[in-house]
Amino acid sequence: MSKKYQSMLILLVLYLIAIIVGIILFLNLESLTLIPRLLIADIAATLVIWIFSLIIKNASAYDPYWSVIPPIILILVFFHLELSSSFPIYLMIAGLSIWSLRLTYNWAANWEGFHEQDWRYTIMYQKSPKLFFLSNLFGIQLFPTLIVFIQLIGAVTFMSVDPSLSMFTWLGFGIMVISALIQFIADGQMRSFKQRTKGQKLCIEEGLWKYSRHPNYFGEVMVWWGLYVIYFGSVMRLDLLILAPIAMTSLFLFISIPWMEKKIIKTRPEYVGYQKRVSMLIPFFRKEEENHKIQENA
Length: 298
Prior knowledge:
There is one protein chain. By secondary structure, the chain is mainly alpha-helical. It has a domain at 1-161. 70% of the residues lie in helices and 0% in strands. Residues 290-298 have low confidence and may be disordered.
């Protein structure tokens, strides 16, 4: 068995332990309402991953948590509420599960094992090694857990009101599936490009990447907007939960993308031209066409 698959097996056991800890805690918090119970269980599972990441000295143990846990939370809610067959709820869970499978597959295809850590985490460690256990906990693990959990509040609320099938259910489901498909296509194009140009520091400016600098992130953001559309259809009013997809969009627009592009520009100043030609997130017409490719490492 290769080191990669050994690492995956260890990670699988770890996540099963984290999920079991979360479920046990959830079942023993009967005095609380549903949302706080789920939140505490989610945080507890995250803490299990965090402790393990400290032991192996690799914060990337958390990386698949983003995509693995959300559908598990919704399935837990489904059984907790003792819901009978509900097609609208099935649609919502199916849409989120398609996204989850796509993102988890992409992570598994690119991950090489515990010897590898996300470059952003390494930068955080280098800036403050003595406090990394805290930045790992709050910045790398708890913050993403919380921002994803906020997205799920609308989904849990939707499941709690015995929803009827509506055009918003179909619309939200369609947005989620199409967004996951965009991510899948973008990931495939990137993977193929890297294989063809292995050993060369070239950038991709073809396929979806010709019209968006981050089509995979666009798909990610739109998945959560699709989930919100489903929730909106059940309440038919704007409320504070509109802040959930706005927060997710802001995370990518103001943190993830700028951080990545700053890194790229340090080694590939040509990327500045690419920024001027191509939309940051939403696929759109290019401002100009060129016959040559610029260098980038997306």
